[in-house]
Amino acid sequence: MTIGVPKETADGETRVALTPDVVRRLTGAELNVVVEEGAGAGAYHPDADFSDAGAEVTGRADALGADVVAVVSPPPEDEIEQLTGDQVLVGLLDPLGVPEGIQALAESGVTALAMELVPRISRAQKMDALSAMSSLAGYRAALIGAHALPKFFPLLTTAAGTIRPAQVLVLGAGVAGLQAIATARRLGAKVKGYDIRAATREEVESLGADFVDLEADIEGEGEGGYAKELDAEIQERQPELLKPHVAEADVVISTALIPGGDAPILVSEEAVEMMAPGSAVVDLAAPGGGNCALTEAGTTVRQHNVQVFAPTNLPAEMPVHASQLYARTVAALVQVFIGEDGQFTPDFEDEVFAGACVAHGGEVRGERVREALGLSARDEKKRGREDDEQAAEEESSASGLENEFAPGAAGKALPGAAEPADEDGAHPANTAEDAPSTAPDNPPQGRTDDASDEANKSDEASKSDEANKEANDETDDPPEGKTPDAEEDDEEWKPPSS
To answer: Which of 115, 312, 321, 400 sits at a 20 to 30 Å CA gap from 406?
Structure first.
């Protein structure tokens, strides 16, 4: 199997999907890697580094024609049309922000895996690219604020007098927000953090920041402990309640995004006008419209003696570590769909694959993505059932060979194949509520499918139901995952040997 790494073409994108150290691990595991000339230049990786790691440095056509194409952002539309049903595309595909792009991928026939939708569970934490990139963004946002502020961040005692520490307010206590809090604290600022989820108070305070309690009936915790979109009335109250806290801050860093929707306004123009001259707002929600009323994505606005920064791709400003972390998550995901035969093996019984897959067999997958496109979720269930039936027919038709690649075996190192797969594609980090599982061939414990009446009459079917129940009892959902560490794990990953 060949993995291709084309050069990124999006404006301002400097990252590369695979770095030389990860390429070395993949080629050492007998996988072929082809890299487009200059693909790593933006991340300070010359072509020679990839060649030394065992990759073939070649033209763009070869990289895009590989069995698996690893990208940071989706390729241009004309190149998407050249992809085929025999290929797999892995990348940050923004399926909820730009669902039309997923429709185009589906029409090409390619199997597309969105790194943003990898489920946040313990065995998938090494694949959590979204958390890794959010951590980089939060760190960078704190540095932007410190650089823009015409004051010291820390408390200083000098012969000329005492300098008070800067006041920093961070709105949103997700991965980016918590990293911004930690970085601002390390720089010596006095930090406050706010989130609509009361459960985040402990996390904010553990980093040495004060938690902002609005003392109002505002609670926005959805399923899985993640934020949910608030009612319109409450959204209107938030900016007013936050106004005095914004006015006191020298730097405001906002991180509240709603996947597939507009970011909520938390900082009104009136609040900005109340800030001290020289203050700064760093709005990480700019791609979704921004949390500040003055935000203009990709530009810096100066109004009322306050600078409003609206960056749209902060990880690209730190391409070395951003590429390193991203490449590791891509390599970790590869083991899910490369089977023991070294070939791509789709496994919708595996919740990681089912969650990340947004296009397969010419169809859009994932309930939230389909809803964004106005497609029926019911049709998807039917297609999933047909896919499973087709896979079963192919398995039974294999003559004279014992099939070692039954559903669940592709990611052999990843347990839990008997667990019902979540085909809605929802990522807890990106959505407020987890949609119910739509996997057709894994009914809830104690239930059977359409043939349940016959199963009650058949001893053989009853035994099968009992066995399935025991399997379900033994497979519990693992705890939530964590952000991937920046350091390399001691144990080096290798795909299953043939």
So the answer is: 115
Q: Are strands 167-171 and 190-194 parallel, antiparallel or unpaired?
A: parallel
Provide the residue type at 458 as one letter.
S
Q: What is the DSSP string of 145-201?
A: HHHHSSS-SS-EEETTEEEPPPEEEEE--SHHHHHHHHHHHHTT-EEEEE-S-GGGH
Q: Where in the chain is the domain with CATH 3.40.50.720?
A: 2-128+319-474, 138-314
Q: What is the DSSP letter of 442?
A: -
**35 sits in which H/E element:** strand 32-36
Domain 138-314 of CATH type 3.40.50.720: yes
The gap between the terminal CA atoms of the chain, to the nearest Å, is 12
Please list the active-site residues. 120, 125, 128, 131, 226
* CATH topology for the 2-128+319-474 domain: Rossmann fold (3.40.50)
CA-to-CA distance for 262 and 336, rounded, in angstroms? 33
Measure the CA–CA gap between 59 and 7, rounded to whole angstroms.
10
Closest CA to 489 of 356, 365, 328, 367: 328
For the segment 232-269, what is each residue's pLDDT rounded down to a tens digit?
677 788 999 999 999 999 999 999 988 888 899 999 99
What does the alpha-carbon distance between residue 457 and residue 313 come to, in Å, rounded to a whole number? 60
Task: Return the residue matching tokens 């397969």.
Answer: 360
From CA 128, how far away is CA 27, in angstroms rounded? 23
Give burial (CB, 10 Å; 0-12/13-18/19+) of 234. Answer: middle
Report the distance separating Cα 226 and Cα 175, nearest Å: 11
Q: Is the dihedral of CA 342, 346, 348, 354 positive or negative?
A: positive
Q: Are the C-beta atoms of 112 and 48 separated by less than 8 Å?
A: no
CA gap 346, 338 in Å, rounded: 8
Q: How far apart are CA 397 and CA 434, in angstroms?
A: 37
Predicted confidence band of residue 340 (pLDDT cuts 50, 70, 90):
confident
What's phi and psi for 134, nearest 5 deg? -65, -35
State pTM to two decimals.
0.75
C-alpha–C-alpha distance, residues 189 and 253, integer Å: 13
Distance CA 383, CA 441 (A): 12
Question: What is the rounded distance in angstroms from the CA atom of residue 281 to the CA atom of residue 178?
Answer: 17
Angle (nearest 5°) at CA 88 between 338 and 110: 140
319-354 core/surface letters (b: 16 or more CB in 10 A; e: else): bebbbbbbbbbbbbbbbbbbbeebebbbbbbbbbbb
